[in-house]
Please model this.
Amino acid sequence: MLKEVYDEARVCVRCPLSRTRTQVVFGSGNADAGLMFVGEAPGANEDKQGLPFVGQAGKLLDKLLDEIGLARADVFVVNVIKCRPPDNRDPHPNEIESCQGYLRSQVRLIEPTMICTLGNFATKLLRGDTTGISRVRGQEEVRTIGNRAVRLYPLYHPAAALYTPSTLEALRADFERIPALLALGAPEQPHPPELEEQIVDDVPELEDDLPEPEAGSADGQLGLF
Ligand code: URA
Model:
């Protein structure tokens, strides 16, 4: 369960950021949430407090959530990188590579229906290509992450909107669409491969009985983070 992944992450030494961090910033919010936000990396405030998005960018995130009737307690917030890069530099490819197992475990266990990627790093990682955020922001798409299909909704990073009014305007307009996108519910889930084979082998009535992938994995996690 999620607590086990957290216990592993908080003592992680998979990359050199473990030597300069104060603490691992695993993520916070409602582990049963349907909506997950993925930012870039902890900054100085996050590194000190052990929580994501607690600085100025976090305050803007809270405001934008509030404007659509949501609060932090309704969502789960994580970063691509769980440890602060020194001097707030961009994450290095080896750091993203070392850390991505934690993000994938978080998605598998939290089972969100929708993931908002905040900025270039999260968007490129979860879309699996190098297209920049300004070309894809506000364009929802169904993507399979691990064994789970989610609505992926790339957004500008709130830090980029802090000092650029036109970016803030675009981010706010994209936020306003979140409730309607959430109301669509979960996208159709991929079938586990071994059962898919059986369906192809002409056993169509099995389809209704397919077990949910990872059914029950989120048990007991509410309130842990
Ligand atoms: N704070 C975070 O936790 N993540 C970011 O990407 C930026 C600020």
Remarks:
- The longest helix spans residues 93-110.
